[in-house]
Amino acid sequence: MTRTNPPRQDRSSSSTGTPTREEVQRAIREGGRALVDLAERLGPQLKEGRLTTSQIRNIYGMVKQMEIRGFDANEFVLLKPKLAYAAARANVPGADTLKEVLTCAIDEVGTDATKFARFVDFFEAILAYHQAAGGR
User: Fold this and answer.
1) Using an 8 Å Cβ cutoff, are 86 and 103 in contact?
2) What pLDDT is recorded for position 53?
3) Contact yes or no for 53/131 (Cβ under 8 A)
4) Mean pLDDT throughout 68-88?
5) Dihedral of CA 77/17/43/112: which sign?
6) 98 touches 19 (CB < 8 A)
7) How far is CA 116 from CA 9, 56, 80, in A?
8) Are 60 and 68 within 8 A, CB to CB?
9) Distance CA 91, CA 77 (A)
C-alpha cells in the first residue's frame, strides 16, 4: 500500500498573515486600496512582533529625507542594507517582517519615481496602522 502525502498547506498571506511578495508588488504598482489594505494588516502584525514606533521611524526618517531631496534610485536601493542592519540590531520578529516587506517593495520601485511616491505612502500607512494598533 502506498501512502500519499497530504496536500501542502498554502503559506500565503491568508494562512500566515505575512504579506506575500505578490501582495507587496501589487500595493506598490497600484497604490490606493491595495496599499491601504496591506498596511492595515501589517501595522498590527509589526506591533505584535514587538517592533517599536521609534525603530520604524528611524527608517521612515531616511525615506522622508530621500523624498525631500528628490528620488535617486541609487540612494534608494541603499536602504536595503540599512534595513538588514536595523533588523539584525532590533532582533525582534517584527523587524524581520518589516525588512522583508520593504525590501520587496524597494525591488518593485526600482528606478520609477511614481512607484517611489507610492512606497512613501505605503510606509506612512504602515506607521499609522502600527500606532493605531497601540504600537509604542
Assistant:
1) no
2) 95
3) yes
4) 97
5) positive
6) no
7) 34, 18, 14
8) no
9) 22
Grid cell, residue 63, equals 525615506
Residue 9 has pLDDT above 90, yes or no: no
**Residue 78 CB contacts under 8 Å (≥ 6 apart), including other chains:** none
C-beta separation of 119 from 106 below 8 A: yes
Cell 510606509: give the residue.
123
Amino acid at 50: R
The length of the chain in residues reads 136
Angle at 29 between CA 104 and CA 132, to 5 degrees: 70
Residue type for position 69: R
Q: What is the 3-state secondary structure (H, E, C) of 51-108?
A: CCHHHHHHHHHHHHHHHHHCCCHHHHHCHHHHHHHHHHHHCCHHHHHHHHHHHHHHHH
